[in-house]
Amino acid sequence: MPDDARPISMQKASAARLYDHYLGGSHNYPVDRLFAAQVTALCPFMPDLALHNRQFLRRAVAQLAAAGIRQFIDIGSGIPTSPNVHEVLRDTAPESRVVYVDNDEEAIAAGHRTLRGNPRAAMIYGDLRSPDSILANKDLGNTIDFTQPVALLIVAVLHFIDPADEPQSLLTRYLDVLAPGSYLAASHISVDEASDLARGQLRAAQQAYGSTSNPATLRTKAEFAAFFAGLELVEPGITFAADWRVTDPVAADDPARPCFYAAVGRKP
Description:
The chain has 10 helices and 8 strands. By secondary structure, it is of the alpha/beta class.
């Protein structure tokens, strides 16, 4: 395990384990469950946010596979709560190759256990903020052919990147090495179009996350759109995660619905 991997801590909640807990997973500790109860008291729709986001990920992966993509890099993948990317692909595009990337020891350890014996999927250490380190990883290079199109998945991660870390520049570094015809799928929390009540609740949750290992930043729709500069947005463009190519729409008054933007863009 790299020396700078985020160590497993049972004293402070982590975003990876909280996300796992919201989705009904078992890779979390009492500190995470206690914090989740506290933050859900502040923002009752937090579990719904996680669910909408996970469902967007599954739909995006399925759509990209249908478009012919057979290589996927999931940065900030978190703990591999089922169904994950390789499981979505299992029936429709089993020849696909997947690399999961995270900087949390718990996520990496769980990923290694889950993927043991799977020749087409790997879990590697990496921090989105260190693109050179990730791109130089031998396991990534042995799994992904960068001369062919790749789907880069950065789902529910960018809001954990501080503006000082220049997320736009980081994304450009990754996109620059991808072949034409590659895609970026991303999602991000926001309160632009939330109700006054939901806006206040999500801001309270954001403040609470400041005490975890992963403080969060809310961004506007325009700021999220900037991450797709130079890419061709796939229909329906930038929309709510709960609405992106959905076949069973959530209720229009679902308070979580307008609090997560999502989009998929193609590199020309």
